[in-house]
Every structure is written in structure tokens, then in C-alpha cells.
Recover the amino acids of this structure.
């Protein structure tokens, strides 16, 4: 029997089958390809052809420099800043495409998309000071799209959505010169500053890395989340299923994989068309079954309940079931290895973005002006491939029920209703000690550890300790494929205070907030909690922590930095990419915490990640002079009521309102 490489039993079963079949996966490659210790610790500089320079040695930080004289701290800071620029570029390029799609809808240039959530459109227009009352919807949408597109190329000023942050948080950004002007401006400046011979002050470099990351969190990702809600609907709780058992042996199985929601939304539409179903039946199938992988999965899961086969490390394993007839991919987190792997089975790998082609894949170019036509082409290709399916593959039937679809708006609604939406019950529960704190559990899953296992450990231990978990991306997939997003299972494992709050409000203790761009929902939730009062008057200082225990992408580093700059202590698993420099490590932990009340740690030990997170939460509670957290002891100063009880009180107090 092979070693345990994934905590997901279904994944492990497929991995073991692959070992028997001599099929190589990312788990095998991770074992064979050891990380470079020099580059992995941030001690390699390859910014010019005088190098690459390896800044190693017993006293490298004090004595060793590159050929140009760059110190180890400078090199480590530049390397991290470039990771931030790469991650910001990925999220924000996604957002740019969403903004152009909204503009095309507003201008009547595409018949396949429309504005689904007018209420969200008006809410965003309000943030942007755009008049919407009495105006045609498309006119408002045009102004919103045009205004948000300015956030990419503006040369002076500041990003629009910075105004959604608490006033005190904004003041910190201005004090330290990190309030972003525009996405492209900050990314380009990062690349310039980190070019050979430019910025050599590690603290100064890292401040600009924070500025660039804020352009991701408070512009790119937030723009993408809001426009996706406007076009396809703001998520509300929906039932779905997770793991490899979602595939059906007697139906055409299509998987959407990547991160962009526009084409996948149209695939959702066309797979249920009578003509498409009839076409599938003409090929011998009983119907068409649609599933997802990675964050494209999260997009269609949150809005339609489309089942997910999991996150990053599950993509090859999905092909190895032998049941996927077509895997349609767009951008980000797609392993090029899947095309070579697919040759051993019958799966067609279909690329759809002009930005992301893979050798060996079939390319079907997506065009928003003929989106449904492209979607139908992909579905037909999958149907045509169904007769080529063989019995080869590891057929796994495991699957778990899950609840997803939580958004800022829905969490607000759950606590007060449509017209009295509020974060007061959550704040009260934290103040009373029923909820110890909040953790954002995010990031990828990683084949260099027991994949998905650290996510599961952290999630279960946090809820046992009365910590409310909000999850996104592959972190959500890891929880979902373990059955942890089923309310019954999670409530059984939650601490008594958290369980009481969740039952009263009507939410599970682990809330699936969406794709990795939807980490922006956590920012707006934290801002709403600050505005509600009773806790901190800024994001910094709240009993809240961000954790990415199995991260692997540059996008994760950008996310970690924008949370730290916003005032949230962040803990990443695995080895630190700046560990070679004690000075850079000190800046990212001690100096950032002093300036922004946020910090950025790297810690490979899951037990220490948990302990550090709880310590940050408890110290924040102490600094805010909140009731000391004691399991099962909540005090009597407040009575926690559900929505129905609150409505009865308001009805009695204000009968003239007609509740």
C-alpha cells in the first residue's frame, strides 16, 4: 500500500490505483522534485544576467551580497513583492474581463448575458456615488462598469472601493502611503521597483507590495465578486454534493475547471436544453451531468448547486476516474500535466481562453458575444466523446452533502431580515464570548503535504474552540469533500457557544463564501462588523485571523498581504519564502503588526498554526476588553434571540409599520 498522500479517502483510493497502474500524478512529482532550498527561502536573485546570485552562508544576512551589492533582505523582499504582483495580476485580469462583460451587457452587445441582480447593481452604484433611482438599468450598469474600469488605469487618486473600508483603516493606509491608485499602476511599479538597480530598502519594497496587494483585495477581487453577483446573482444558501461520486457512469460527464464564471454559467444553461439532452441520448447516454473543479466549480456551486469534485490536487484524479468526457478549462491553477494524463483515458481537455493554451489540448475560443454557441460546442464535443469511454479508471462513489452560497448580503439578511439586515447578533455573540473569534480559512491544497488534511484539521479544531470559520477557494473544497460543510456534521463538532449562535441565526459553523476572488467578501464583512460597533472601529484589532494552511499560488501571497495590510493577522502553512532573511521576517510580523494591526507568518506545524491563531484571537479580545473566553460560559448580559423572536419584539414596539 502506498503512503497517505491525501486526507480525502476518495482521492487516496485513486492515487493508490494510479500507483498500481504506474500513472504519475502531482503527488509523485512533488516527491521526486525537491524544492530548491535557496530559492525556496528567498535567497536567490535572478533580476539580471549578472546573476543569478545565491546569497547563502553562515552570516549571509550581514556579509553576503549579490554581485551588484544587493543584500539578502533586499533580495527576499523583492522576490516576495514580485509574487504579490503576479497574484494581483491574476485576480485583477479576471476582474477586468468581468467589467468588460458588464459593459457589453449594458451596451446591448451580447444577447447571452443579462443583469440578474438589480438590487446588487444599485448597491454597487451607491458605493460609487452613481445615481440609480428612476434610471434605466442598463444606463446604471454602463456607468458602474465604466467607473470600475477606471480602477485599472488611473494615474492619480485612489481606487473606488477603498471608501468601503472603515475610516480608521483608510487613515492607516494613507499614513504609510499604501492606498492604491490603480491596479495596473501598482503592479507596474512593483515590477519597476524590483528591477535591478532600483529599490534596495526592504521595508520600502514591502510597503509597496502591500499597496499592490490592496489593489487586488479592495479593487480587482472586489470588482470581480460584485460584477459576478450583478450578472449571475448574489449567492444564497444552496444544497449540493462534493467528491468524485458526483460523476455518473451512464451520463455524459462534463467538468468546468479554472476560475472565470462567464462560460461556465452558459454551460450550466445549455446542459439542460432539450436539444442537448436529446443529443446526449443519441450517443447512448441517459443525460448530461455537469460538475466542477477548483474555483470555477465554486462559482457555479454557489449559484446553482452544481456539484464539485474538489480543488487543485483533485484535477488529475478526476481524469483518472475514467468518467470525465470533457474537461473545459479557462485560467489559473490548471496543471498542464492533465493533457498527457488524458491520453491514457478518453477525456478531452478543452482550453477556452486566449490567455491560457496547453499543448495537447483542444482549443475552443470563448467569445462573450457568442457565449451560448461556444457552450453548446463544448457540450456536443463531450457527448461525441461519450461512446469512447472505456471501463478503465478508478471508479469512486464517495460523495458528501454540503451547503454553500453564503455572501455578505445573505449573512446580513440572516441576522436581521430583508429590511433590517445587520451584523449586530454576530458582534454581540463575540462580545459575550459565545463566539471566540472568526477565522478566514482559504488557500489552495498542496501535494507537498497530506493534501487537504491540514485544512480539515484546522477547520475542525477551530469550530471545537467556538471559532466561526468562513472559507473560500480550495479550502472550501477540502471541507466540502470531507463532509464538513453539512450543517449536521459541523454542528456536532462545534463548541457549545458557536453551536448556539449557529442554531439561532440559522447558519452552519463553516460558511462557504465562494471562489478565491471572493475573499473580498471577508473584507466587506469585517468592515460591516466594524461599522456595526461594539468591537473594533477598524478591521485591525478584531478577534479575527486569516489562515492558508496549504497555499501554493502567488495569488495566495497577494491575498495574505492585503489581509495583513487591512489589519488581519495571517498565518500560512509550509516553509517561509522569506525565511533566509530575519529582517524581512521581522518586518512582515512585528513591523506590520505595529503599523496596521496585521501580520504575515509562515508556520509548517499545524498544531502551531492553531495555537498562534487562537493566541491572536484571545489577545485581541483582551485588548478590546471583551469578556474572557471560557468554553460554555457566556454570561447573562445578553440574550441571544433568533430572527423570529426579534421580529416579535419589533412588531410589539412598532405596530404601525405593519410587520
Amino acid at each position: 500500500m502506498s503512503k497517505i498522500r491525501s486526507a480525502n479517502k476518495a482521492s487516496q483510493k485513486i492515487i493508490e490505483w494510479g500507483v498500481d497502474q504506474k500513472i504519475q500524478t502531482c503527488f509523485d512529482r512533488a516527491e521526486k522534485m525537491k524544492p530548491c532550498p535557496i530559492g525556496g527561502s528567498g535567497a536567490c536573485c535572478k533580476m539580471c544576467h549578472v546573476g543569478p546570485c545565491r546569497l547563502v552562508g553562515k552570516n549571509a544576512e550581514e556579509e553576503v551580497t549579490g554581485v551588484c551589492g544587493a543584500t539578502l533582505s533586499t533580495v527576499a523582499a523583492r522576490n516576495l513583492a514580485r509574487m504579490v504582483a503576479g497574484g494581483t495580476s491574476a485576480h485583477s485580469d479576471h476582474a477586468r474581463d468581468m467589467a468588460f462583460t458588464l459593459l457589453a451587457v449594458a451596451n446591448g452587445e451580447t444577447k447571452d448575458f443579462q443583469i440578474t441582480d438589480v438590487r446588487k447593481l444599485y448597491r454597487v452604484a451607491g458605493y460609487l456615488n452613481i445615481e440609480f433611482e428612476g434610471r434605466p438599468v442598463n444606463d446604471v450598469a454602463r456607468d458602474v462598469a465604466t467607473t470600475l474600469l477606471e480602477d485599472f488605469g488611473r494615474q492619480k487618486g485612489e481606487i473606488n472601493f477603498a471608501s468601503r473600508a472603515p475610516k480608521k483603516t483608510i487613515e492607516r493606509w494613507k499614513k504609510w502611503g499604501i492606498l492604491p491608485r490603480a491596479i495596473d499602476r501598482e503592479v507596474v511599479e512593483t515590477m519597476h521597483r524590483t528591477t535591478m538597480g532600483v529599490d534596495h530598502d526592504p521595508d520600502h519594497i514591502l510597503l509597496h507590495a502591500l499597496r499592490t496587494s490592496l489593489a487586488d483585495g479592495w479593487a480587482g477581487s472586489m470588482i470581480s465578486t460584485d460584477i459576478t453577483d450583478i450578472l449571475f446573482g448574489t449567492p444564497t444558501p444552496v444544497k449540493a454534493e462534493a467528491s468524485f461520486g458526483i460523476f455518473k457512469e451512464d451520463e455524459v460527464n462534463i467538468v468546468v475547471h479554472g476560475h472565470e464564471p462567464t462560460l461556465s454559467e452558459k454551460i450550466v444553461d445549455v446542459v439542460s436544453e432539450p436539444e442537448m439532452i436529446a443529443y446526449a441520448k443519441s450517443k447512448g447516454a441517459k443525460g448530461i451531468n455537469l460538475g466542477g473543479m477548483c474555483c470555477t466549480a465554486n462559482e457555479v456551486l454557489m449559484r446553482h448547486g452544481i456539484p464539485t469534485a474538489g480543488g487543485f490536487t483533485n484535477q488529475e484524479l478526476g481524469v483518472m476516474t475514467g468518467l470525465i468526457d470533457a474537461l473545459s478549462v479557462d485560467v489559473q491553477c490548471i496543471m498542464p500535466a492533465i493533457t498527457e494524463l488524458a491520453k491514457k483515458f478518453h477525456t478531452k481537455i478543452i482550453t477556452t481562453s486566449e490567455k491560457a493554451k496547453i499543448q495537447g489540448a483542444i482549443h475552443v475560443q470563448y467569445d462573450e458575444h457568442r457565449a451560448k454557441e461556444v457552450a453548446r460546442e463544448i457540450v456536443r464535443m463531450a457527448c461525441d466523446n461519450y461512446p469512447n469511454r472505456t471501463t478503465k479508471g478508478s471508479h469512486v462513489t464517495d460523495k458528501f452533502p454540503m451547503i454553500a452560497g453564503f455572501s455578505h448580503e445573505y449573512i446580513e439578511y440572516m441576522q436581521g431580515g430583508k429590511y433590517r439586515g445587520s451584523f449586530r447578533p454576530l458582534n454581540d455573540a463575540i462580545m459575550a464570548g459565545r463566539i471566540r473569534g472568526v477565522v478566514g480559512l482559504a488557500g489552495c491544497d498542496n501535494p507537498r503535504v497530506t493534501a487537504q488534511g491540514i485544512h480539515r484539521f484546522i477547520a475542525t479544531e477551530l469550530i471545537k474552540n467556538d471559532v466561526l470559520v468562513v472559507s473560500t477557494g480550495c479550502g472550501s473544497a477540502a471541507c466540502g469533500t470531507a463532509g464538513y460543510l453539512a450543517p449536521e456534521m459541523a454542528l456536532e463538532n462545534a463548541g457549545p457557544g458557536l453551536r448556539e449562535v449557529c442554531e439561532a441565526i440559522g447558519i452552519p459553523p463553516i460558511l462557504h463564501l465562494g471562489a478565491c476572488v471572493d475573499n473580498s467578501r471577508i473584507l466587506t464583512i469585517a468592515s460591516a462588523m466594524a461599522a456595526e460597533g461594539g468591537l473594533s472601529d477598524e478591521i485591525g484589532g478584531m478577534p479575527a485571523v486569516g489562515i492558508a494552511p496549504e497555499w501554493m499560488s502567488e495569488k495566495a501571497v497577494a491575498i495574505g498581504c492585503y489581509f495583513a495590510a487591512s489589519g488581519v493577522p495571517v498565518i500560512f502553512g509550509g516553509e517561509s519564502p522569506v525565511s533566509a532573511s530575519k529582517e524581512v521576517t521581522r518586518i512582515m510580523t512585528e513591523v506590520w503588526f505595529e503599523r496596521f494591526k496585521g501580520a504575515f507568518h509562515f508556520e509548517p506545524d499545524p498544531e502551531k498554526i492553531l495555537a498562534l491563531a487562537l493566541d491572536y484571537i484571545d489577545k485581541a479580545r483582551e485588548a478590546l476588553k471583551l469578556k474572557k473566553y471560557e468554553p460554555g460560559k457566556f454570561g447573562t448580559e445578553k440574550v441571544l434571540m433568533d430572527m423570529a423572536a426579534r421580529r416579535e419584539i419589533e412588531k410589539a414596539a412598532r405596530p404601525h409599520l405593519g410587520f
Q: What stands out?
A: Residues 9-63 form one domain.
